[in-house]
Amino acid sequence: MTQEPLSPQNISREIVFFEVTRKVLEHLYNHFQEIYMPILHNPNNQKEWSDLVSKDLMEKFNNYLAQVYVTIGLISGKTLLPLPPHKLTISESTPDKDKAHIFEGSIITWTKQIKNVLKLEPEQALKAGNDPNPLTEIEFWRKKSENLNSIYQQLQSDRVKKILKFLEQNKSTYTIPFNKLNKEVQGYRMEANDNYKFLQTLKDPFEDLVSEGRDFTTLYEVFLPIMHIILLIWKHSKYYNTPPRLVVLIREICNAIIAKAVGFINGRVISQMISDHEEKDACNKLQTVIDICHKFKDIYFEYKAKANGGWKLTTNALFVRLDSFLERCHDILHLTSTIVQFNTLDRIDIGGTKGKSLSESVKQISEEFKEAVEEFQNVPYDIMDISKKEFDHDFNKFRSKIKELERRLATVITQGFDDSDTIHGRFKLLDSFEGLLSRPIIQDELEKKHIVLIESYKQDLKSVQTIFLEGKALVDKKDERAPLYLNLPPIAGSLTWCRSLFDRIREPMDKLQHLSQAIIDREEFKDVQKLYQSIVKSLKEYEDQRILQWEKESDESSKEKL
Fold first, then answer.
1. Closest CA to 137 of 238, 226, 262
2. Tens of pLDDT along 85-134?
3. Cα 277 from Cα 265, distance rounded (Å)
């Protein structure tokens, strides 16, 4: 090469050009095989070389050619065993010692290649963190089956058999280990072929599982046929019936379910739904995801029972990623349901003497909550991606802020509770915060007010009982002070009066029973419940008595006038 500029006079000397096919390596291999090898092997071209130089050059050339051949196989997904030059195999002039050395080098290369194929396992895709779906399992066994079949055919070729026979005759130490490896190839080949044959029966349901056309809400429909086929494979396959094989397959199915779930609802969609005030729809979608994931686990355990103890697998090994995803879904569902609950604060207006200041406090809590939600919405990653471990820190920060707001809100509720002096006023206050009362911190704070609420209701029950007994006596005497509507006849008036008393005590009792399990478990509530039942019984008996009286009077009156 020279530094002078290219010109018509020197271009033929300075530029080397030739045609190359699309398959560059194959072209290179054939180029060396058909052109350079005959040239280098020609004794006339080796006249000026010493034996040492000749052997060293040819050995390096053959090694290079073998590497090109191996690389061609790797690109096409096959294992090609590089053979020594054909002329060397049939040559009578090459000393046996030199032949044995070259053939043993080939044996070493083949052994390394074959062992690399034999040690391939489907778990490697999972360990690589690629989150493969179950179609990867079928593809793995297809490739391994084809590869081992190809290796087996190459090992059965005449040239390989001649090489092995030559080494055996020369008592090479490499023949026994290689023959053993040859038998292993046969065993692994049978396993791969058998596994691929059985796994092909799962191809259609797996394609349905990962299909973009399959609606996620109906994904559970493919779980049953998949698990049924897996159980049949387990029972009938000669090789695909071990815990490690099943673990890989189930984990890959879990990966497919997670991928479909993220396609159904992801962080970007959730954030947009929150911005559009569609938090309830987000909650429903997240609950759908959780239900479908649990449905798969339920079907797995159903078929595990049908395996009659054969599936001795730890749940953690199978569902490690699915459980992490479910935990993430529950966290985000907690987030969206919290938003739904706290959004009611905008509509709350507290009455009473302290109502104005308490309403201002609620408004301030609502504003701070919205700021916390907006900050969480702006995280720079998909919150549904379980590989994003920073979610835990951000979610804990959000949850800590919510706990602080809950404490402040609990204080507001208790102050409003104390400010109200009637049972109906207190229940009206609790109704306005209905969606938030189930939150643990608020619930714990309200438990301190349960005894006050029960006592207040007890006093109201006693008042109703007194009103009933006094009013009943006046009604029976037909006293003008009887608590009856003037525009109603006696019987209808007394029934309406009884019904109004019942309605007065029924609503607070219903609210108490649904407010908290802690209230129901208290002895004080049980006493109040007995008093309530006693009053209801008295009211019902009095109603029945008045109705019977009306029937009797109507019957007598009718007979008199007929």
1. 226
2. 766 666 666 677 878 888 888 899 999 999 999 999 999 988 888 899 99
3. 16
What are the start-end ranges of the H helices in 350-476?
Answer: 355-377, 390-419, 423-432, 440-447, 450-476
The two three-digit tokens of residue 393, written as one number? 């820190």
What contacts 213, CB < 8 A, 6 or more positions away?
none
Q: Tell which residue, 87, 110, 98, has the closest CA to residue 160.
A: 110
Q: Report pLDDT for 10.
A: 81
C-beta atoms surrounding 411 within 10 Å: 14
Per residue in 229-239, pLDDT (tens digit) is 999 999 999 99
CB-based burial, 51-68: b 16+ in 10 Å, e otherwise: eeebeeebeebbeebbeb
Convert the pLDDT of each residue in 191-227 to its tens digit.
999 999 999 999 999 999 999 999 999 999 999 999 9
Cβ-count burial of 159 within 10 angstroms (0-12 exposed, 13-18 middle, 19+ buried)?
middle
CB 273 within 8 A of CB 279: yes
Q: Given this model, what pLDDT does residue 102 score?
A: 82
DSSP 483: S
The CA distance from 445 to 435, in Å, is 15
pLDDT tens-digit profile of 291-303? 999 999 999 999 9
pTM for this structure? 0.79
DSSP 8-state secondary structure symbol assigned to residue 83: P
Identify the residue whose tokens are 């179609």. 135
